[in-house]
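Side project, low priority. Logging it here so it doesn't get lost.
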Amino acid sequence: MTDSLRLEELATRLAAVQGRILAACEASGRRADDVTLVAVTKTFPASDVRLLSELGVRDFGENRDREAAPKAAQSADLDIVWHFVGQLQTNKAASVARYAAFVHSVDRLRLIRALGAAARRAGRVVECMIEISLDGDPARGGARAAEVPGLAEALMAEEGLRLAGVMAVAPLGMAPAAAFTELLDSAAAVRAVRPAATAISAGMSSDLEAAIAAGATHVRIGTALLGDRGAHVR
């Protein structure tokens, strides 16, 4: 596909996603500019980042450092913001801290310490969201609700990091509306530690409406915006 055809496709998809966000905000009495669209570009090339930037998208998300780091380097001339939204191993913290303005998946003390040290070495301040496990499944990432206040306090004390809010993925088998409503308790616990930590990263292509109704400030959109990943998987 030529760049011009891909740009046209992305423009159409972007307009549809923005329309959904607007409708969801209107339905819940919120302003559309209170919700940040994070374009999750995993498995898609850096050229799509460039095209979406032309269309006015500023926030981009990636799940794996091995893909995100080179993509961020190839897009270094663009006025965009990188969000790391996947599970983060401590040995990748140094790399991620060099390009990510936001890390949505902070879920343990060891990671906080590694990310803080990396941010200080890079001379940067990284905005961090505590990932919440809504079903307690140890096979997936995320902190349990009881762990949230302690992690929030640790983030507040870690130079180079700033506590921004919370993140969650609605578990399979749980209605998104119920899942995101449950997330609000952890969001309140984080705000009790830092009142300005109001970010709520929730909602993807299939459930952004439920997330916005529950107060999401960031929605992480991949398939609805960029299309099927099957042909692009590396």
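Brief comment: The beta strands are 36-40, 59-62, 81-84, 102-106, 126-131, 161-167, 199-201, 218-221.
Revisit when time allows.
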